[in-house]
Design a protein that fits this description.
Layout: E1 2-9, H1 13-33, E2 35-44, E3 48-51, H2 58-68, E4 78-79, H3 83-89, E5 94-97, H4 109-118, E6 122-125, H5 128-145, E7 149-150, H6 153-156, H7 161-169, E8 174-180, H8 183-193, H9 198-207, H10 216-219, H11 222-236, E9 246-247, H12 255-263, E10 266-277, E11 280-291, E12 303-310, E13 314-321, H13 325-339
Parallel strand pairs: 1-2, 1-5, 5-6, 6-7, 9-11
Antiparallel strand pairs: 2-3, 3-4, 8-10, 8-12, 10-11, 12-13
Helix pairs in contact: 1-2, 1-13, 4-5, 5-11, 8-9
Length: about 350
């Protein structure tokens, strides 16, 4: 049985989703894959900090958050360590970085990842900020220190788009990537096609929790631009940051625009596009009218999808959730399995 001791930096929706998976599926993961995942530390600026080398019960952590909004009410050997002390001193094999995303600086997650890697600890993150801004640097640093980085959750939550592309599609020769990689805007556009105004569709997206009170990160295309930079760098050898992505959001689209596309047998989607032009990797995010025959045109609601154009297979499209508590928590599980070199395919 292989055991990974985990220090979670941040215990918001993703961290709690991951803890829920351990509660419900931990025994199955141990039995089926021979991997025991043990949370030993949590550092969260709002919910508190605790560390116990003997391990923390994920059910107790979830109950504490449910009843008090904090985790430091759970008994543990140590309380009050901040994120950096937790990274430095906790006896953890993997640091799971789940703090808030900042696409301008990547902080504080970037400092957390650098510190963990320098300490010889594997890292897993769903935080697209540091990956969109500094992934080549982090990858080089990890190689120098003999550790691995898991980043599956940074683009399409638990839908394994990065692993599929890196491990199975790269040999087929990826020449272009097109995707719906922001569920909020896809939901808004779907509702507008059904007759809603942009304002009403946005308000409904906020009510359902798809959009933040300040929706600019989604509707202005910043979120999708960060993910496009990750796809460009990881899968096509680019050296882009989000500011390099040609970006236009959906806020200028009107009901008349949507109706005109519908009348022409087309549908508006916010499409992230990555391709190589004249030897340079370029990326864009912009509203695009797609024919209804296009595989991305049929993807509605908050679902994400991505189409890889390859030399040997033609177009390959993957559809799945792009957000969610359990969904992104699953991405953490998948990365930990990969770091452990565990073959998830059944053995004959």
């Amino acid at each position: 049985m292989q055991t990974y001791r985990l220090a979670l930096i941040g215990f918001g929706n993703v961290g709690q989703g991951f803890a829920q998976i351990l509660c419900e599926q931990g025994p199955r993961l141990e039995e089926q894959f021979g991997l025991r995942l043990q949370i030993v530390a949590i550092a969260d600026t709002l919910k508190g900090n605790l560390y116990d080398p003997e391990g923390l019960d994920p059910a107790a952590l979830l109950e504490a958050v449910r009843t008090s909004g904090r985790v430091d009410t759970v008994p543990a050997a140590f309380h009050g360590w901040d994120a950096l002390r937790t990274i430095d001193e906790a006896a953890a094999d993997v640091v799971v970085e789940l703090s808030y995303t900042d696409l301008k600086t990547g902080e504080p997650a970037l400092t957390h990842l650098r510190r963990a890697i320098a300490a010889g600890k594997h890292v897993v993150t769903s935080n697209k900020g540091p990956i969109a801004l500094r992934y080549p640097e982090l990858k080089t640093l990890a190689r120098e220190h003999g550790v691995k980085i898991g980043i599956e959750g940074t683009v399409m939550s638990g839908t394994p788009v990065l692993r599929l592309a890196e491990e199975l599609l790269a040999p087929a020769g990826i020449t272009r990537i097109q995707g719906i990689i922001n569920g909020t805007t896809n939901y808004i556009l779907t509702q507008m096609e059904s007759g809603m105004s942009y304002t009403d569709a946005l308000a409904e997206a906020q009510e359902k929790g798809y959009a933040e009170a300040d929706p600019s990160g989604d509707v202005d295309g910043h979120d999708a631009a960060g993910k496009a930079a990750i796809l460009a760098n990881l899968l096509m050898g680019g050296l882009l940051i989000p500011a390099d992505v040609d970006r236009t959001g959906i806020s200028a689209l009107t009901s008349q625009d949507v109706a005109a596309a519908k009348a022409s047998g087309e549908r508006w989607k916010l499409i992230a596009r990555v391709e190589r032009v004249d030897g340079q990797v370029i990326a864009s995010v912009r509203p695009t009218r797609l024919p209804l025959s296009h595989p991305l045109a049929a993807v509605s609601g908050a679902i994400n999808a991505i189409t890889f154009t390859t030399r040997l297979l033609g177009d390959v499209t993957l559809v799945g959730p792009g957000a969610g508590r359990l969904e992104t928590g699953y991405a953490i599980v998948g990365d930990l399995l990969a770091i452990g070199g565990i073959d998830i395919l059944p053995q004959n």
